[in-house]
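Cross-posting from the modeling subforum.

Setting up a comparison between two proteins and wanted a second pair of eyes on the formatting. Protein 1 (sequence, then structure tokens):
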Amino acid sequence: MVTAPQGAAPAHLAALRSFVAESGKAVAWLTVVMVLLTFIIVVLRYGFNLGWIWLQESLTYLHVAVFSIAAAWALQQDSHVRVDIFYAKMTKKNQARVNLLGSVLFLVPFCVFILLIAWPYVANSWKLLESSREAGGLPLVFLLKSLIMVMPALLLCQAVINITDAWKTLRHENPV
């Protein structure tokens, strides 16, 4: 059995970390597309009195994709919302304790709950190949609803990384 050198991440953990990061980076550029699309929709609507449901719905699809796929990457980059009054002043070991407990007690159960609750909803949408209720809307609602499953799955991947990193800090790092 080959083990990673002290201080180096095991290959599977590095691959998981890379997967979460690359997933987030892959959809981050869609925010630029969303801004341009919003501009186009406004110009068409108020400048030319034109509007298409599919164009407006595509903006919703992009928004959901960015939010749900990039959420785990934001957590990985420590870019999520946190009340930092106490955390910033903590030692690295205490921060690791907070991250470990937060991941185990809150993040993992939340993600598992969402996956369990969403599965029948998403599966039914796929069964029907659900499309927009609006005339002229996008016929891809089943794909949109699938993102409900993607977000907690990616967050679970990041939870594994957080738990491993916190555990490593608690086991190997000197208190600051």
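Protein 2 (same layout):
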Amino acid sequence: MLSERNLRVAAAVLALAGLGVAIYIAVAESGGGAPKCVIGGGGCETVAQSKYAHLAGINVAVIGIFGYVLLLVAALIPGDPGRFGGFLTALVGFGFSAYLTYLELFVIDAICQWCVASAVLMALSLAVAATRAFAYAGREFGAPRIQSSHGG
């Protein structure tokens, strides 16, 4: 089992990577552009130009920036507030990413590699946040995790 400190570091690294991806998408899409598909194809442009690229007039990449900032803050907060704040944020972010991925696959009929990268980072963030929240819930920050042993 990873220490809580290592889980917090992993959560912060994932949040920073996600923040980088979301900022790139938002900047690339500002002014009607689209992120460049490194592997080729026009999936990124198709997704960026779709009506699903905005929610209530807000670019979904900006919503992603906000989510990744919250994940970074949660990684920096010790104890249960950081643990469960990170878990809740990652859970909502994962659900939103799953919805957007569904739209790409079955509605827009195009895949943006940057969106996929963000979805993968959010899924990993959820795994790390869930591990941190449920393995260390109720423990003081820095307290060792107590292993139970069952003897016969």
